[in-house]
Amino acid sequence: MQENSLFLNQYLIESLLGSGGFGSVYKATHLTTQLSYAIKVDKKRKGNVKQESAFLYELQGGEGIVKVYEAGETEEFTYMIMELLGPSLSKIQKQQGGKFSLDTVIPILIQSLYRLQYIHSFGVVHRDLKPQQFLVGPNNNLYLVDYGLARKFIVQGTHIPYQSNCSRAGNSTYASLNNHIGIHQTRRDDIESLAYMAVSLMNGRLPWQQSSRINSSVKWNNVYKIKSTINLYELCQNCPSEFVMFIQYARALDFHEEPDYEYLRRLIKGIQPLEGVPEPMKKSESAAKVTNSSETAPESAKSPDEPPKSKKQVVIPKSKSYMIRRK
Question: Where does ATP bind (predicted)?
């Protein structure tokens, strides 16, 4: 679609907000109401937007879920008309010089865990978490968007069976180790991807990030070699040691296992100032507005330092700490 063109004879297309393999998103204004919307379109033969709208209709009403006002198809496109949200974490991060301060990343993580817990409660796994998929919206809340790769892990009330030799899906930078080796993604993979995202928000990039010009298969293989062998404390340098625990917990989850979201939130809330890290850098207005919101959950009697029992043992190294604890 072109700028200043009409869509459905009702919406004036103003600008392209973003595009990718699963459609393009435009800012548009309704001619009668003069209200602004986001319109996502995709070639009809692909059908990705149609599938995404089905997931979003099911998730409607949840905090951090974009409102969908209409979905349908024309002779050429499938489309969704949605509420217009603010910038992505990726865009804000670039405006901030490539890194977020710890006091910004903590509430981002806490809100993100609520978003994942919500979509997982509907049997949906996102499969493509990255900073571009989190937008700042009304009431300073984070919105998890783009369900073009989402899939159901609960079908007719039953968890899907273990599957291997699957196609890799999502972004190689934030993909879980199991995604790399072709194991079907479930809740644990979203959690692991979120952990990598947290490190990238703090440090600006991940050690395995590859040029976009590299062949996709080569890139995935190169990333896996580094990701599967790197020392987690090296990966999480300049980050709190709780980030190491977060990654270890995610990697220890079983295929069918439900993550303990509240344990992870307590873990993140318990982070203390870092030794040698300067005062929180000045945040943009948008970044500063990313708060913990009003969402709360009952606190368990378990300590944040005691991860919930899993079928796999979570090994927490005790030999190294980056933290200064408040006295």
Answer: 40
